[in-house]
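pinning this so it doesn't scroll away 📌
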Amino acid sequence: VASHVAAYLGTDPLKLQFTSAHLTFGTPSFVIKREINTRLTSMLPTRYQSLPASANILYYEILDFSIVELETKKFFKVLWLGATLKEVDVINILLPKNSIIDDVLREILLNLSLPGLTNSVRLFEVTNCKNLKEHKSNDPIDNIQENAILYAEEITQDEAERDVNDKVIQVYHFSKRPSCTHGIPFKFVIKAGEIFSATKLRFQARLGMNEEDFAEVKFAIVQEKPCIESKYIFCSNAILSDHNWTSDKYLGLDYVRKTEQVGIMGDDRKAVYIEE
């Protein structure tokens, strides 16, 4: 398969990496590991039932290195977040398997053209567009899950200079129902005594949204245990720091009419059609 695709693209077959497509959404799902005798039929879902058109999709990526190197090294695709969640750069990183997270952070900074960072950098792993797991600088990279979605960002000034009474909470995006998650979750500082109208202005700046789109976003405190419950915030004078923010609580942003998503999607204008 790699030879046929590489011949069409005019590239080295050992620099091609294939990814399966999500059966429901058609978005990239899992990286397919290199095996010499792998056939096209084994790279696609087993046809034991009627499957959507996305079942016939394979994503390819032309890497800067040979996939043979993955036998001794680990490859990461890290999404660097800028001042807003709409500013995203993709960074490819290849490191020896005995590296630590600090090595990943160093590679990220080497790949970015930044004049200088004021605060430290955080690397975190996201699951279900909601749960955020932060990695410590001395953790081994083996702690990172296979096919993990990784993000990196400079810690915000609000968080770096937060007061002892300020609270750092987790925020995620959903549409209509708290379980319908999307987008990039993030950490946000709830300042002690700050009224909600002022907090919303800081949210708008972090999201990078204009007035019209931001006006359609609703805010809800979502509690996961013992079952998912949401309580919407309507009062502009509410003080979120007064709320008891336990570890099972999130602030959810409900996009009633629009869905703001950031991700890596395929481009069918660059598709290659193959048969077996």
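📌 and the second one:
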Amino acid sequence: MVFVLCVLFLAIVIYVMEKDSRMCRFFSRRFSTIAVAILLSLSVLIGFPDRAEAVKALKSIAFDPGATAVNVATIYETAPTTQKTTMKSLKSANKALKKAAGFEGAAVLQSDDGTRLIVLSQWKDLESYQTAIATPVESSKETKTTAVAPTRTVVFELGKTQTAREGVIPAVKGKEAVVEFSEFKLKTPDDREKVVASAEKLIPAALLKQPTPQSVILMSSTDNTDVALMANWNCTADFAEGETPAEFDALDAEVASLVDVEQHLYNVVSILPAEVKKPKKETEES
């Protein structure tokens, strides 16, 4: 389409030059610059498609403190030898998520030690999520595997968030992203406030670590059994050679005994945006 418009523009310029001598003199002084600009644009769009695609916005999942979305962590415990197989088995379920009413996006996280998979999804409300999981998912014809049942599912509410740059909404972006997900499983729900307060203290320190994460997010489960901290780095290409994200600091000593901790580093395997339904064209009256 861009190519056609450029050719059309050049044709109009040549036509005007032929019809009007004054316009001919005008364009003769500027035609070279215009032509070079057009050719450079075409070289990017046609000769270098990867660079042209780079200008498109990366797929992302945002964690806006002002939003009312429900965040759900669907956790699969795996072994290094079974992680890939489990990932393949979730293909059909992930496709179904995108079509579900109320689905707003998801990130599929794969731990680098091979022991965890997390599908971190966002929903308009809890009812939308509950309706979606109640709908049966067909087995994948491509992988010929049945979807594996999750080990645990945790519904989170978004708590305190902080970003490396002020005024930016926390977001996990693209397949180059890495996530540190630390889960504090409460032994007693009554200790939730203590654990949340201690976890909040770790956020500023996490943003001072090198490499610096783009954001740190605190979430707590709706049933008061889990508190989670998540830090994200959206481009591992910026890491120095051999550099890896640092773990979160430990909770206060008096609080650490109140929880069981699961902390893993995850690679973002994919970002699943909500399916955008195109409006149906109105049929023309005969």
